[in-house]
Write a structure and sequence with these properties.
Length: 401
């Protein structure tokens, strides 16, 4: 019956899920209680129950979509594929010497330049963010967060934005680390090809200018990352806000498998659904399953940042090792996903070949690693056998292990 396959899920503070399966159990009990002459009553009860939950599901689904569309302004910052030239002026020395003070704010000016060279100034608060890269032993220049002070409601690029994450270069005066920034940027752009449920990014040519004049100007690449709420609204959805466990079995299967293959393709083990690590979740309707959305790819083998190699080596792991961290599937179930990846292969390769800022050595190395991935999935039986070594079984999925 239709009511048995409809799943209505309400997200409360403790993430209680209400499933139609309970209605099925209730009706089955009625079958025992009601005698044969009362079968007509039982059928009517089923119809009323079914209609009620269908109505509620449709009502709340449209309500959520309408809300998302109403709150979804048209952001210009992430529309353009062109690099954006900006200057960020603040007290650099003070920021670098106060890394362990989480609440330390640094007043600054963000200046961006239009294509005709015309500058626009926006007042911001500059904060240090992150965990691993925040440590000066790992990065001489930490990742940043910019909170906007100026009323930018009319600004062409930043209107409506309260804050943004800024991915920085980690080590100053190193062209190699600039290439790592570009590699991570391209991984975000690659997943944009895989799924619209992905974070938009905007590449930046940045000058960090010290307001005190005591630190030389630093110039490097970086990029802004779309805010999670903005990403969800762009897809007519809403973030699942939770600190509790998200179960693999409750996620949108199609999205989860595509994400898992992507992480395998880029050689990234630094993510986890069970630990809520480097993954956000979006629901497009009340009755839909959460869609996982990945972020933070600097530990991917494609990027090959030195701190990743050092960490893996110190922990006596194989630097070249990558695990498939998706759910276990049969070969016939994997084939449609392999076909999908072959369908987007040319777009992915063109993204790298046409990107002018990544050097040729990095391009060749990256595409060679992608070739290895495509060679593997070209043989579904071999790929399935490889994935079974580390995939999550049905039991593991149910227990989130």
């Amino acid at each position: 019956m239709i009511y048995s396959v409809i799943k209505v899920q309400y997200i409360f503070h403790n993430n209680i899920s209400l499933h139609i399966e309970y209605i099925d159990k209730f009706v089955n009990r009625l079958q025992i209680i009601i005698s044969a002459p009362g079968i007509f009553i039982m059928i009517n009860i089923r119809i009323v129950v079914c209609k009620t939950f269908i109505f509620l599901g449709i009502y709340f689904s449209f309500a959520l979509i309408a809300y998302s569309q109403e709150e979804n302004p048209d952001y210009d910052l992430f529309k353009s594929q062109q690099i954006l030239k900006i200057h960020l002026t603040f007290h650099i020395d003070s920021l670098l010497n106060n890394r362990n003070v989480d609440t330390k704010d640094h007043l600054g000016i963000l200046t961006y330049f239009e294509t005709d060279g015309r500058p626009t100034d926006i007042r911001v608060i500059v904060r240090i963010r992150g965990n691993f890269r925040k440590n000066p032993d790992n990065c001489s220049f930490p990742p940043l967060r910019l909170d906007f002070l100026t009323d930018n409601s009319e600004d062409r690029l930043f209107r409506g934005l309260e804050w943004l994450k800024l991915v920085t270069h980690c080590q100053t005066d190193s062209s190699k680390f600039e290439q790592f920034v570009l590699q991570e940027y391209l991984l975000y752009k690659t997943y944009n090809i895989i799924s619209p449920f992905s974070f938009n990014v905007r590449l930046l040519d940045i000058k960090y200018i010290d307001s005190s004049g005591s630190v030389p100007t630093i110039q490097s690449y970086g990029f802004f990352i779309e805010r999670p709420k903005q990403m969800a609204q762009r897809n007519n959805g809403e973030l699942v806000k939770t600190t509790d466990v998200i179960f693999y079995k409750d996620l949108d299967k199609n999205s989860l498998v595509k994400l898992s293959l992507f992480q395998y393709m880029i050689w990234n083990n630094d993510w986890s659904v069970a630990l809520l690590h480097n993954v956000k979740f979006v629901k497009t309707t009340i009755i839909s399953s959460p869609i996982p959305v990945p972020y933070d790819f600097d530990w991917a083998g494609i990027v090959s940042a030195p701190y990743r190699v050092r960490y893996i080596t110190d922990n006596e792991e194989n630097v070249a090792d990558v695990s498939y961290m998706g759910i276990c599937l049969k070969k016939k179930e994997l084939i449609p996903f392999f076909d999908f990846y072959f369908g987007v292969k040319n777009k992915i390769y063109s993204l790298y070949r046409d990107f002018p800022y990544l050097d040729d050595v990095q391009k060749e190395r990256t595409l060679h690693m992608y070739d290895d991935f495509y060679s593997l999935i070209k043989k579904p039986a071999k790929a399935n056998s490889k994935f079974k070594e580390t995939c999550f079984s049905k039991k593991s999925v149910q227990e989130n292990k």
